[in-house]
Amino acid sequence: MTIDMTLDDCRALDRADPLRNLRDLFTLPEGVIYLDGNSLGVMPAATPARVAEVVAQEWGTGLIRSWNTARWIDLPQRLGNKLARLIGAAPDEVMCTDSTSINLYKVLFAAMSQVIDSGDAARRTVVSERSNFPTDLYIAESLCRERGFTLKLIDSVDALPAALTPEVAVLMLTHVNYRTGAMHDMTAVTMAAHAVGALTVWDLAHSAGAVPVTLNESDADFAIGCGYKYLNGGPGAPAFVWVNTRHASKFDQPLSGWFGHAAPFEFTPHYRPAPGVARYLCGTQPIISLSALECGLDTLLAAEPFNADFGPMAALRTKSLELTDAFIALVEARCPGRFTLVTPRAHAQRGSQVCLAMKNPDEAQGNAAYAIVQALIARGVIGDFRAGDAQTPHILRFGFTPLYLSFEDVWDSVEHLVQVLDNNEWRRPEFNQKNAVT
Amino acid sequence: MTIDMTLDDCRALDRADPLRNLRDLFTLPEGVIYLDGNSLGVMPAATPARVAEVVAQEWGTGLIRSWNTARWIDLPQRLGNKLARLIGAAPDEVMCTDSTSINLYKVLFAAMSQVIDSGDAARRTVVSERSNFPTDLYIAESLCRERGFTLKLIDSVDALPAALTPEVAVLMLTHVNYRTGAMHDMTAVTMAAHAVGALTVWDLAHSAGAVPVTLNESDADFAIGCGYKYLNGGPGAPAFVWVNTRHASKFDQPLSGWFGHAAPFEFTPHYRPAPGVARYLCGTQPIISLSALECGLDTLLAAEPFNADFGPMAALRTKSLELTDAFIALVEARCPGRFTLVTPRAHAQRGSQVCLAMKNPDEAQGNAAYAIVQALIARGVIGDFRAGDAQTPHILRFGFTPLYLSFEDVWDSVEHLVQVLDNNEWRRPEFNQKNAVT
């Protein structure tokens, strides 16, 4: 990729792209270049019909009988088995259920319980990053307060070696940072944590369906993640939970609802956890939303035939890096001096998104990043804005989903960005009013 | 209602029923008399189109913008405000979110925290009923173990006065029992609990949309319940949580996810709970399933014009009691000596279901109740079976939803029951094999 890449070059890349037809698995709205699949994935073309079938046939006609006949009861596991193939997990190790925050509560509680049960009373620290997704920190705060642990936040990955002391019970990290797109080396970090006797909890919200994940190969301990981003499961789609088999049957998680019971329909008064990861289920799942998630998972599995012998996600990862490389190269070539690249340039440290900050100090502190994102949205290029604080800049965030984005989309989005800047379009008042959610 | 009620009498009751047209709000499958709305409610006729709109338009076209433009962000509160009218709550006191089990965890934790914070170290008992719905007991077991409380189970409501000692921190009851249909007097029980300084947690799974509930008038403390039974929200529909305003802003609940934060989209690293019941939200909600729940709530609100001055649920309650009275009278008249009525005969103690046990001791201990339910299902009369144990009999359970059931349905279901018994149909082998879920 050179800095003088042209629209024709992008079209040539699209013609040579082995994944180009996967775009047909989605319903992309007219006039939109969607660079926000890291916030809410695009609707698979199969979803409306599948959801309509679940509503009108399975519920409307089957009614209560569909728990058996439509196998609603198996959905968390069946979807978990599909997802397992994307995150380096084995069959029956993953459940699709509840929300990311709730699943984090379950696994962090379970990890803490293991440490408490070990009798090592000096090991009462949970380490995470200050830049982790806030809900992860909120859940950790709650559990630390309740269970007598200390939450220690590091400012960057460089501080990790020094932070990994024998007091650390759990290292809780998000694999790909939601703001910067920076990716941890899961294997190396897990090994470092294990070397001091700490357990690892990984949040895969920006990883599952976006980058290769090797949970078992990396010997991770616990993982959770989100169904509505790169998994294309729909707004607020149920999340997932994975537990290493060496832990799965060892602990009770506190949200011990009937669906995690060894025999939920025996209606016994005392809790007896199901074997394995099934004990991480709690209550009745939202079947319509869960069914929509299956259509999203199927879009990712459709890329499997292109992976050859390079393992899960290999083909998607290759294209993802090519897309983000192209976007970075074009922004740097066509908007010189305007942006700082926040996302790591090194492939091994990059997720499937590109984040930019304003280079000019006045613009970096002002409203420019927000307003540029709004001006792009008005042109149909949907990315998002994430506010900074004293330590971190405001950012423009662009997610690249190789399933449905083309190299021409990359060209066009940069072309729009150039026009927003050259025309000073972003200075218009309507792009400088804040909404509640972006 | 006399024991010589005829089919013509039932038809006359239907003609006189002011709620008879509400049945048109539902899509009832052909050839089915559905007496299982206490397990999974019938699909409202409006739901398929509404769900299709959420999927294809709000998600498919609106994408991430719909958090603002379709007000997804407000759904838990908007639905909570509709539900509030059915359960004697005020606006902004209810949130529709997560599952019943998870909401119970939140409120029971909060109730325990209040007692712990009060400094009364002797008050560490949670009282409930052995016959409570199992998931409630499992969640209570978990929290009691974790927080140093004792769970004390009483065998019947008669034991309640003796159980309410100064050691009781929380009285956790299900308002209408899932197996028997017996209903507690919420006001009297709450008053008795408060008299010894205990807080009350009410599970409204079989009450909301089924019977009048008077949370504020009864001065209850916490309540949770289910969206997929009498609220017709769809399979696994999100549940709800209500907290008395005197407690709502006082405690943190442990599942402190970003949606319960005072400013979730500021992405601050520390948790600051939202004011009021909004802090009982946790993670991102399953928007498709949540949208379907709104259609269910609307079917109940459609009955409001018939309530006159008798308060929420008055018209539905009147018809519910007439339906269950008719069913009891017809079963007793036409199947003499075969069944024992498990559900209380007294209106004040009856929910919206009728439960029967076999009278003959051999049949009571054997497979008869199960097989009769299966034989009825094969005839299109869908009720369900709940297994007994050493203390309690096997039961046949029939839920009566006044929104979509007629008196002729009652007649027909008893007619089928008579034939199942008279023909010994229930003794066929195919009705004597157990399924996983009934």
Query: Would you tell me the structural class of the helices and strands of chain A?
Result: alpha/beta
Structurally, the number of domains of chain A stands at 2
Assembly level: homodimer
Per CATH, which architecture of the largest domain in chain A?
3-Layer(aba) Sandwich
User: Strand fraction band of chain A?
Assistant: 5-15%
Q: State the name of the first-level CATH class of the largest domain in chain A.
A: Alpha Beta
The ordered string of helix (H) and strand (E) elements of chain A is HEHHHEHEHEHEHEEEHHHEEHHEEEH
Order of the strands making up the biggest sheet of chain A: 2-8-7-6-5-3-4
How many β strands of chain A by DSSP? 13
Task: Report low-confidence residues of chain A grouped into runs of 5 or more.
Answer: none
The percent range for helix content of chain A is 25-40%
Radius of gyration of chain A: 22 Å
Q: Count the DSSP helices of chain A.
A: 14
CATH superfamily of the largest domain in chain A: Type I PLP-dependent aspartate aminotransferase-like (Major domain)
Main β-sheet of chain A, in a few words?
7 strands, mixed
**Which pair has the most extensive contact?**
A-B, 89 and 89 residues
The rough form of chain A would be described as globular
Mean pLDDT of chain A: 95
3D architecture notes:
The structure is a homodimer of 438-residue chains. Chain A is an alpha/beta fold. Chain A has 2 domains: 7-45 and 314-432, Aspartate Aminotransferase, domain 1 (Alpha-Beta Complex), CATH 3.90.1150.10; 71-301, Type I PLP-dependent aspartate aminotransferase-like (Major domain) (Aspartate Aminotransferase, domain 2), CATH 3.40.640. Chain A has 14 helices and 13 strands. In chain A, helix 5 (100-118) packs parallel to helix 6 (134-147). The longest helix of chain A has 21 residues, at 314-334. Chain A is globular. The two termini of chain A are 32 Å apart. At the A-B interface, helix 2, helix 3, helix 5, helix 6 and helix 10 of A face helix 2, helix 3, helix 5, helix 6 and helix 10 of B.
